[in-house]
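Tokens for Acyl-CoA-binding protein homolog 3. Go.
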Amino acid sequence: MSLQEKFDAAVEIIQKLPKTGPVATSNDQKLTFYSLFKQASIGDVNTDRPGIFSIIERKKWDSWKELEGVSQDEAKERYIKALNDMFDKIAEELDVAAWLEQIDPVIKTNLALIGK
């Protein structure tokens, strides 16, 4: 399986995670996944920094800007690693196998694709 296919599977997992519940992503995790996704998909920041009153957009832009110079492939690898690390941490507190039976089956399939 190619890096792009693994990355696409990881992105789909994040997109399909329930918004609430035991495996909801924190704001910091969302910011990490956002910035890595942008770097992996587009590369270095290609827009102006949002204004001071656009707090959320500015945080997202700053997080992406911090990845400047990271290759798109490296960003994809980091995205997949961040997802794997997140599930490792979740597994310390939750029976992930049982949880996976209750949610979108695509998540379970895609976790297997990325080596989880």
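The radius of gyration is 15 Å.
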